[in-house]
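Duplicate of #3305? Posting structure anyway:
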Protein backbone atom coordinates (compact mmCIF):
# COMPACT_ATOMS: atom_id res chain seq x y z
CA UNK A 1 0.00 0.00 0.00
CA UNK A 2 1.54 3.29 -1.13
CA UNK A 3 0.13 5.99 1.17
CA UNK A 4 -1.43 6.16 4.62
CA UNK A 5 -4.73 7.09 2.97
CA UNK A 6 -4.63 3.85 0.97
CA UNK A 7 -3.87 1.95 4.15
CA UNK A 8 -6.80 3.53 6.02
CA UNK A 9 -9.12 3.00 3.06
CA UNK A 10 -8.07 -0.62 2.83
CA UNK A 11 -8.81 -1.17 6.53
CA UNK A 12 -12.19 0.59 6.27
CA UNK A 13 -13.11 -1.56 3.27
CA UNK A 14 -12.31 -4.76 5.15
CA UNK A 15 -14.45 -3.66 8.12
CA UNK A 16 -17.26 -2.63 5.78
CA UNK A 17 -17.25 -6.09 4.19
CA UNK A 18 -17.34 -7.64 7.67
CA UNK A 19 -20.27 -5.37 8.47
CA UNK A 20 -22.13 -6.27 5.31
CA UNK A 21 -21.22 -9.93 4.88
CA UNK A 22 -19.61 -11.56 7.92
CA UNK A 23 -20.59 -10.35 11.38
CA UNK A 24 -21.23 -6.67 12.19
CA UNK A 25 -21.31 -7.14 15.99
CA UNK A 26 -18.02 -9.02 15.93
CA UNK A 27 -16.53 -6.32 13.69
CA UNK A 28 -17.54 -3.67 16.28
CA UNK A 29 -15.96 -5.69 19.09
CA UNK A 30 -12.71 -6.24 17.18
CA UNK A 31 -12.30 -2.65 16.05
CA UNK A 32 -13.16 -1.38 19.55
CA UNK A 33 -10.29 -3.48 20.91
CA UNK A 34 -8.02 -1.96 18.25
CA UNK A 35 -7.33 -4.98 16.06
CA UNK A 36 -6.13 -4.16 12.54
CA UNK A 37 -6.28 -6.42 9.48
CA UNK A 38 -3.76 -9.26 9.50
CA UNK A 39 -1.66 -9.45 6.36
CA UNK A 40 1.24 -11.79 7.05
CA UNK A 41 2.89 -13.68 9.86
CA UNK A 42 6.25 -15.20 10.68
CA UNK A 43 7.52 -17.01 13.76
CA UNK A 44 6.07 -15.29 16.83
CA UNK A 45 4.85 -12.20 14.96
CA UNK A 46 1.72 -11.13 13.10
CA UNK A 47 1.92 -8.06 10.79
CA UNK A 48 -1.10 -5.87 10.21
CA UNK A 49 -2.21 -3.67 7.29
CA UNK A 50 0.07 -0.86 8.48
CA UNK A 51 2.94 -3.35 8.65
CA UNK A 52 2.99 -2.99 12.43
CA UNK A 53 4.25 -6.16 14.08
CA UNK A 54 2.60 -7.82 17.05
CA UNK A 55 4.14 -10.41 19.32
CA UNK A 56 1.57 -13.21 19.25
CA UNK A 57 0.98 -14.03 22.92
CA UNK A 58 -2.43 -15.49 22.04
CA UNK A 59 -1.07 -18.07 19.61
CA UNK A 60 -4.46 -18.65 18.00
CA UNK A 61 -5.77 -20.17 21.30
CA UNK A 62 -3.19 -22.94 20.96
CA UNK A 63 -2.90 -23.26 17.16
CA UNK A 64 0.54 -21.68 16.81
CA UNK A 65 2.59 -24.03 18.96
CA UNK A 66 5.28 -23.95 16.26
CA UNK A 67 4.78 -20.26 15.56
CA UNK A 68 3.54 -18.97 12.23
CA UNK A 69 4.69 -20.56 8.96
CA UNK A 70 7.27 -22.88 10.47
CA UNK A 71 9.63 -23.54 7.51
CA UNK A 72 9.61 -27.33 7.92
CA UNK A 73 5.80 -27.47 7.96
CA UNK A 74 5.50 -25.06 5.04
CA UNK A 75 7.98 -27.16 3.05
CA UNK A 76 6.12 -30.41 3.81
CA UNK A 77 2.83 -28.83 2.72
CA UNK A 78 4.35 -27.41 -0.48
CA UNK A 79 5.81 -30.79 -1.38
CA UNK A 80 2.48 -32.52 -0.76
CA UNK A 81 0.65 -29.78 -2.69
CA UNK A 82 2.67 -30.66 -5.77
CA UNK A 83 1.82 -34.37 -5.40
CA UNK A 84 -1.78 -34.67 -4.18
CA UNK A 85 -3.46 -32.12 -1.88
CA UNK A 86 -6.82 -33.81 -1.31
CA UNK A 87 -7.77 -37.45 -1.06
CA UNK A 88 -9.62 -39.21 -3.88
CA UNK A 89 -11.59 -40.83 -1.03
CA UNK A 90 -11.36 -44.36 -2.45
CA UNK A 91 -7.64 -45.18 -2.24
CA UNK A 92 -5.47 -45.76 0.83
CA UNK A 93 -3.64 -42.63 1.94
CA UNK A 94 -0.04 -43.33 2.97
CA UNK A 95 0.22 -39.83 4.48
CA UNK A 96 -2.78 -40.40 6.77
CA UNK A 97 -1.41 -43.85 7.71
CA UNK A 98 1.97 -42.35 8.67
CA UNK A 99 0.40 -39.60 10.76
CA UNK A 100 -1.94 -42.04 12.55
CA UNK A 101 1.05 -44.19 13.48
CA UNK A 102 2.96 -41.17 14.79
CA UNK A 103 -0.01 -39.98 16.86
CA UNK A 104 -0.52 -43.42 18.39
CA UNK A 105 3.18 -43.45 19.38
CA UNK A 106 2.95 -40.22 21.38
CA UNK A 107 -0.49 -40.65 22.98
CA UNK A 108 -0.72 -42.35 26.40
CA UNK A 109 -2.10 -45.79 27.26
CA UNK A 110 -3.64 -47.83 24.47
CA UNK A 111 -4.87 -44.93 22.35
CA UNK A 112 -3.95 -46.65 19.10
CA UNK A 113 -6.64 -45.64 16.63
CA UNK A 114 -7.19 -42.30 14.93
CA UNK A 115 -10.21 -40.74 13.22
CA UNK A 116 -9.27 -37.67 11.18
CA UNK A 117 -11.37 -34.53 10.84
CA UNK A 118 -10.73 -30.81 10.42
CA UNK A 119 -11.41 -29.00 13.68
CA UNK A 120 -11.72 -29.30 17.45
CA UNK A 121 -15.48 -29.38 17.55
CA UNK A 122 -15.58 -32.18 14.97
CA UNK A 123 -13.08 -34.19 17.02
CA UNK A 124 -15.34 -33.74 20.06
CA UNK A 125 -18.44 -34.69 18.05
CA UNK A 126 -16.69 -37.89 16.99
CA UNK A 127 -15.74 -38.59 20.62
CA UNK A 128 -19.28 -38.15 21.91
CA UNK A 129 -20.72 -40.29 19.10
CA UNK A 130 -18.24 -43.13 19.54
CA UNK A 131 -18.65 -43.11 23.34
CA UNK A 132 -22.41 -43.38 22.92
CA UNK A 133 -22.12 -45.97 20.15
CA UNK A 134 -19.60 -48.17 21.95
CA UNK A 135 -21.32 -48.05 25.34
CA UNK A 136 -24.90 -48.21 24.08
CA UNK A 137 -25.68 -45.51 26.67
CA UNK A 138 -26.68 -41.88 26.40
CA UNK A 139 -25.76 -40.03 29.61
CA UNK A 140 -22.87 -37.58 29.27
CA UNK A 141 -21.20 -35.85 32.20
CA UNK A 142 -19.46 -32.51 31.56
CA UNK A 143 -18.25 -29.63 33.73
CA UNK A 144 -19.41 -26.07 34.41
CA UNK A 145 -17.41 -23.58 32.35
CA UNK A 146 -16.21 -26.31 29.99
CA UNK A 147 -15.57 -25.47 26.34
CA UNK A 148 -15.69 -28.23 23.75
CA UNK A 149 -16.84 -26.50 20.54
CA UNK A 150 -19.98 -24.97 19.10
CA UNK A 151 -21.54 -27.54 16.77
CA UNK A 152 -24.74 -28.95 18.26
CA UNK A 153 -23.26 -32.06 19.90
CA UNK A 154 -20.20 -30.37 21.37
CA UNK A 155 -22.33 -27.36 22.28
CA UNK A 156 -24.51 -29.62 24.43
CA UNK A 157 -21.46 -30.20 26.64
CA UNK A 158 -20.36 -26.54 26.92
CA UNK A 159 -20.65 -25.46 30.53
CA UNK A 160 -22.00 -21.98 29.81
CA UNK A 161 -25.75 -21.30 29.55
CA UNK A 162 -25.38 -18.24 27.33
CA UNK A 163 -24.07 -20.37 24.44
CA UNK A 164 -26.45 -23.32 24.96
CA UNK A 165 -29.74 -21.65 25.80
CA UNK A 166 -30.58 -20.03 22.43
CA UNK A 167 -30.32 -23.44 20.74
CA UNK A 168 -32.23 -25.65 23.20
CA UNK A 169 -33.21 -28.43 23.13
CA UNK A 170 -29.75 -29.89 22.60
CA UNK A 171 -28.57 -33.50 23.13
CA UNK A 172 -30.60 -34.89 26.03
CA UNK A 173 -28.93 -36.52 29.02
CA UNK A 174 -26.01 -34.13 29.58
CA UNK A 175 -25.36 -33.20 33.20
CA UNK A 176 -22.81 -30.74 34.60
CA UNK A 177 -20.59 -30.99 37.66
CA UNK A 178 -18.14 -28.56 39.20
CA UNK A 179 -14.72 -28.70 37.50
CA UNK A 180 -12.10 -30.15 39.83
CA UNK A 181 -14.61 -31.61 42.29
CA UNK A 182 -13.90 -35.34 42.13
CA UNK A 183 -16.51 -36.37 44.71
CA UNK A 184 -19.31 -34.68 42.78
CA UNK A 185 -18.19 -36.34 39.53
CA UNK A 186 -17.99 -39.75 41.22
CA UNK A 187 -21.58 -39.29 42.43
CA UNK A 188 -22.72 -38.35 38.90
CA UNK A 189 -20.96 -41.11 36.91
CA UNK A 190 -23.13 -44.24 37.02
CA UNK A 191 -24.06 -47.35 35.05
CA UNK A 192 -26.11 -45.27 32.56
CA UNK A 193 -23.15 -43.01 31.73
CA UNK A 194 -21.63 -43.23 28.25
CA UNK A 195 -18.81 -40.83 29.02
CA UNK A 196 -17.41 -37.99 31.04
CA UNK A 197 -15.82 -35.23 28.94
CA UNK A 198 -13.17 -33.05 30.49
CA UNK A 199 -10.44 -30.58 29.58
CA UNK A 200 -7.27 -31.43 31.55
CA UNK A 201 -7.00 -27.66 32.08
CA UNK A 202 -10.04 -25.55 31.23
CA UNK A 203 -8.87 -23.10 28.56
CA UNK A 204 -11.88 -20.97 27.65
CA UNK A 205 -13.17 -21.38 31.21
CA UNK A 206 -10.23 -19.22 32.34
CA UNK A 207 -7.13 -21.47 32.61
CA UNK A 208 -8.54 -23.54 35.48
CA UNK A 209 -6.20 -26.21 36.81
CA UNK A 210 -7.79 -29.15 38.64
CA UNK A 211 -6.31 -30.65 41.83
CA UNK A 212 -3.75 -33.46 41.47
CA UNK A 213 -5.33 -36.86 40.97
CA UNK A 214 -8.52 -35.45 39.43
CA UNK A 215 -8.17 -37.11 36.02
CA UNK A 216 -6.93 -40.37 37.53
CA UNK A 217 -9.97 -40.34 39.83
CA UNK A 218 -12.33 -39.65 36.93
CA UNK A 219 -10.78 -42.45 34.91
CA UNK A 220 -11.23 -44.87 37.81
CA UNK A 221 -14.86 -43.79 38.30
CA UNK A 222 -15.56 -44.22 34.57
CA UNK A 223 -13.84 -47.63 34.47
CA UNK A 224 -15.84 -48.81 37.50
CA UNK A 225 -19.12 -48.20 35.67
CA UNK A 226 -18.03 -49.13 32.13
CA UNK A 227 -18.14 -45.48 31.02
CA UNK A 228 -15.48 -43.79 28.88
CA UNK A 229 -13.30 -40.83 29.80
CA UNK A 230 -12.86 -38.24 27.02
CA UNK A 231 -9.91 -35.94 27.65
CA UNK A 232 -10.36 -32.97 25.31
CA UNK A 233 -6.76 -32.04 24.52
CA UNK A 234 -7.71 -29.70 21.67
CA UNK A 235 -6.10 -26.75 23.47
CA UNK A 236 -3.81 -28.45 26.02
CA UNK A 237 -2.31 -31.07 23.69
CA UNK A 238 1.14 -31.26 22.08
CA UNK A 239 3.31 -29.55 24.65
CA UNK A 240 1.18 -26.52 25.52
CA UNK A 241 1.23 -27.23 29.28
CA UNK A 242 4.87 -28.33 29.58
CA UNK A 243 4.04 -32.02 29.04
CA UNK A 244 3.06 -33.65 25.75
CA UNK A 245 -0.57 -33.76 26.94
CA UNK A 246 -2.35 -31.87 29.69
CA UNK A 247 -3.48 -35.17 31.22
CA UNK A 248 0.15 -36.31 31.54
CA UNK A 249 0.50 -34.13 34.65
CA UNK A 250 -1.84 -36.62 36.28
CA UNK A 251 -0.62 -39.74 34.49
CA UNK A 252 -4.16 -40.61 33.44
CA UNK A 253 -4.74 -42.22 30.04
CA UNK A 254 -8.23 -41.44 28.75
CA UNK A 255 -10.30 -43.72 26.48
CA UNK A 256 -10.82 -41.02 23.87
CA UNK A 257 -8.79 -37.91 23.09
CA UNK A 258 -9.91 -35.16 20.71
CA UNK A 259 -6.97 -33.21 19.25
CA UNK A 260 -6.89 -30.21 16.89
CA UNK A 261 -5.33 -26.72 16.82
CA UNK A 262 -1.55 -27.40 17.13
CA UNK A 263 -1.64 -30.74 15.28
CA UNK A 264 -1.83 -28.88 11.95
CA UNK A 265 1.52 -27.23 12.69
CA UNK A 266 -0.01 -23.74 12.49
CA UNK A 267 -0.26 -24.12 8.73
CA UNK A 268 -3.23 -26.41 8.02
CA UNK A 269 -6.56 -26.99 9.78
CA UNK A 270 -6.52 -30.53 11.18
CA UNK A 271 -8.37 -32.36 13.93
CA UNK A 272 -8.53 -35.94 15.05
CA UNK A 273 -10.00 -38.24 17.65
CA UNK A 274 -7.68 -40.83 19.15
CA UNK A 275 -9.19 -43.88 20.84
CA UNK A 276 -8.83 -47.48 21.91
CA UNK A 277 -9.25 -50.66 19.86
CA UNK A 278 -12.19 -51.59 22.12
CA UNK A 279 -14.13 -48.47 21.09
CA UNK A 280 -13.15 -48.78 17.42
CA UNK A 281 -14.18 -52.44 17.39
CA UNK A 282 -17.57 -51.64 18.93
CA UNK A 283 -18.31 -48.86 16.40
CA UNK A 284 -16.29 -48.96 13.17
CA UNK A 285 -16.02 -52.74 13.60
CA UNK A 286 -19.78 -52.97 13.03
CA UNK A 287 -19.89 -50.39 10.25
CA UNK A 288 -16.64 -48.94 8.86
CA UNK A 289 -18.52 -45.84 7.67
CA UNK A 290 -20.46 -45.24 10.87
CA UNK A 291 -18.68 -41.89 11.13
CA UNK A 292 -16.79 -40.12 8.34
CA UNK A 293 -15.58 -36.80 6.96
CA UNK A 294 -14.84 -35.90 3.33
CA UNK A 295 -11.90 -33.64 4.09
CA UNK A 296 -10.80 -35.46 7.25
CA UNK A 297 -7.28 -36.87 6.90
CA UNK A 298 -6.57 -35.03 3.66
CA UNK A 299 -2.95 -35.43 2.53
CA UNK A 300 -2.15 -31.72 2.78
CA UNK A 301 -3.21 -31.49 6.44
CA UNK A 302 -1.63 -34.84 7.31
CA UNK A 303 1.71 -33.77 5.76
CA UNK A 304 1.55 -30.69 8.00
CA UNK A 305 0.72 -32.90 11.01
CA UNK A 306 3.69 -35.23 10.41
CA UNK A 307 6.08 -32.28 10.06
CA UNK A 308 4.61 -30.65 13.19
CA UNK A 309 5.16 -33.75 15.34
CA UNK A 310 8.72 -34.05 14.02
CA UNK A 311 9.51 -30.42 14.89
CA UNK A 312 7.97 -30.77 18.38
CA UNK A 313 10.22 -33.79 19.05
CA UNK A 314 13.40 -32.57 17.30
CA UNK A 315 13.32 -29.07 18.82
CA UNK A 316 12.40 -30.22 22.34
CA UNK A 317 9.37 -27.93 22.36
CA UNK A 318 7.60 -29.71 25.24
CA UNK A 319 10.54 -29.06 27.55
CA UNK A 320 10.84 -25.50 26.23
CA UNK A 321 7.20 -24.94 27.12
CA UNK A 322 7.84 -26.11 30.68
CA UNK A 323 10.92 -23.95 31.20
CA UNK A 324 9.69 -20.80 29.46
CA UNK A 325 6.29 -21.26 31.06
CA UNK A 326 7.92 -20.96 34.47
CA UNK A 327 9.54 -17.68 33.41
CA UNK A 328 6.22 -16.32 32.14
CA UNK A 329 4.31 -17.44 35.24
CA UNK A 330 6.93 -16.06 37.63
CA UNK A 331 6.91 -12.71 35.82
CA UNK A 332 3.10 -12.59 35.94
CA UNK A 333 3.13 -13.42 39.65
CA UNK A 334 5.43 -10.46 40.26
CA UNK A 335 3.09 -8.20 38.28
CA UNK A 336 0.20 -9.58 40.36
CA UNK A 337 2.06 -8.54 43.53
CA UNK A 338 2.62 -5.03 42.13
CA UNK A 339 -1.01 -4.65 41.00
CA UNK A 340 -3.09 -6.61 43.49
CA UNK A 341 -5.75 -3.87 43.23
CA UNK A 342 -6.63 -5.01 39.68
CA UNK A 343 -5.30 -8.57 39.43
CA UNK A 344 -6.76 -11.21 41.72
CA UNK A 345 -5.03 -14.38 40.49
CA UNK A 346 -2.35 -15.71 38.15
CA UNK A 347 -2.21 -19.38 37.23
CA UNK A 348 -0.87 -21.65 34.54
CA UNK A 349 1.10 -24.63 33.40
CA UNK A 350 3.77 -24.46 30.72
CA UNK A 351 2.97 -21.79 28.17
CA UNK A 352 -0.71 -21.71 29.10
CA UNK A 353 -1.03 -18.88 31.58
CA UNK A 354 -4.08 -16.96 32.74
CA UNK A 355 -4.30 -13.64 34.58
CA UNK A 356 -7.58 -12.98 36.35
CA UNK A 357 -8.73 -9.42 37.00
CA UNK A 358 -10.96 -8.45 39.92
CA UNK A 359 -13.47 -6.65 37.67
CA UNK A 360 -15.21 -7.66 34.44
CA UNK A 361 -14.23 -4.64 32.34
CA UNK A 362 -10.49 -4.62 33.03
CA UNK A 363 -9.41 -7.13 30.39
CA UNK A 364 -11.38 -5.21 27.76
CA UNK A 365 -9.28 -2.16 28.63
CA UNK A 366 -5.96 -3.99 28.90
CA UNK A 367 -6.21 -5.70 25.48
CA UNK A 368 -6.05 -2.39 23.50
CA UNK A 369 -3.22 -1.21 25.76
CA UNK A 370 -1.25 -4.33 24.93
CA UNK A 371 -1.98 -3.95 21.22
CA UNK A 372 -0.68 -0.38 21.42
CA UNK A 373 2.56 -1.84 22.78
CA UNK A 374 2.78 -4.47 20.03
CA UNK A 375 1.45 -7.51 21.91
CA UNK A 376 -1.57 -9.55 20.86
CA UNK A 377 -3.71 -11.31 23.50
CA UNK A 378 -7.39 -12.10 24.14
CA UNK A 379 -9.56 -13.00 27.07
CA UNK A 380 -11.03 -16.46 27.74
CA UNK A 381 -14.36 -17.03 26.02
CA UNK A 382 -16.23 -18.43 29.03
CA UNK A 383 -14.58 -16.11 31.53
CA UNK A 384 -13.80 -12.61 30.19
CA UNK A 385 -12.11 -11.63 33.47
CA UNK A 386 -9.20 -13.87 32.48
CA UNK A 387 -6.58 -12.81 29.95
CA UNK A 388 -4.86 -15.87 28.58
CA UNK A 389 -1.28 -16.05 27.34
CA UNK A 390 -0.55 -18.97 24.99
CA UNK A 391 2.43 -17.93 22.86
CA UNK A 392 4.23 -20.18 20.38
CA UNK A 393 6.52 -22.68 22.15
CA UNK A 394 9.36 -21.36 19.96
CA UNK A 395 9.22 -18.02 21.81
CA UNK A 396 12.49 -16.69 23.27
CA UNK A 397 13.21 -15.49 26.82
CA UNK A 398 13.68 -11.99 25.41
CA UNK A 399 10.25 -12.05 23.80
CA UNK A 400 8.66 -13.27 27.04
CA UNK A 401 10.34 -10.43 28.93
CA UNK A 402 9.10 -7.96 26.31
CA UNK A 403 5.53 -9.25 26.77
CA UNK A 404 5.83 -9.03 30.57
CA UNK A 405 7.06 -5.44 30.39
CA UNK A 406 4.28 -4.51 27.99
CA UNK A 407 1.73 -6.19 30.25
CA UNK A 408 2.94 -4.42 33.38
CA UNK A 409 2.82 -0.99 31.76
CA UNK A 410 -0.59 -1.78 30.20
CA UNK A 411 -1.97 -2.68 33.63
CA UNK A 412 -0.45 0.50 35.14
CA UNK A 413 -2.01 2.70 32.47
CA UNK A 414 -5.37 0.93 32.88
CA UNK A 415 -5.16 1.43 36.62
CA UNK A 416 -4.53 5.17 36.13
CA UNK A 417 -7.41 5.38 33.68
CA UNK A 418 -9.78 3.66 36.09
CA UNK A 419 -8.66 5.98 38.90
CA UNK A 420 -9.77 9.01 36.87
CA UNK A 421 -13.24 7.45 36.48
CA UNK A 422 -14.01 7.07 40.19
N1 LIG B 1 -12.19 -28.09 22.71
C1 LIG B 1 -11.42 -27.20 23.34
C2 LIG B 1 -10.80 -27.57 24.65
C3 LIG B 1 -11.20 -25.93 22.79
O1 LIG B 1 -10.43 -25.05 23.44
C4 LIG B 1 -11.79 -25.62 21.55
C5 LIG B 1 -11.61 -24.26 20.89
N2 LIG B 1 -11.18 -23.23 21.67
C6 LIG B 1 -12.59 -26.59 20.92
C7 LIG B 1 -12.76 -27.81 21.52
C8 LIG B 1 -13.24 -26.31 19.60
O2 LIG B 1 -12.30 -26.25 18.59
P1 LIG B 1 -12.66 -25.61 17.16
O3 LIG B 1 -12.83 -24.15 17.36
O4 LIG B 1 -11.48 -25.98 16.28
O5 LIG B 1 -13.90 -26.26 16.69
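Output from current build:
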Amino acid sequence: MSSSLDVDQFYETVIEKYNRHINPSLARLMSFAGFGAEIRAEGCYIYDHEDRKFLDMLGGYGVFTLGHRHPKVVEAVKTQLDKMPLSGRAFFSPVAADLAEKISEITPGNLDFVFFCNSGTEAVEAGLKLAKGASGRSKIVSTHNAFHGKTLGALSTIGKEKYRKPFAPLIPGVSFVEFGNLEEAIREIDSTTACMIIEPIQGEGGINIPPDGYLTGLKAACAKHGAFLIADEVQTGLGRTGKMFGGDHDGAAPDLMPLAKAIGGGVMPLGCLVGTSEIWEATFGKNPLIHSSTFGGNPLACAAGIAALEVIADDGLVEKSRILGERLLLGMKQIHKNHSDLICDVRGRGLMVGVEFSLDEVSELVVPQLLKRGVCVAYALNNPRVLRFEPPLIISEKQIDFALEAFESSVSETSELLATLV
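Confirmed duplicate; merging threads. Residues 61, 119-121, 124, 147-149, 199, 203-204, 232, 234-235, 260 surround 4'-deoxy-4'-aminopyridoxal-5'-phosphate (CB under 6 Å). Residues 335 and 408 are 6 Å apart (CA to CA).
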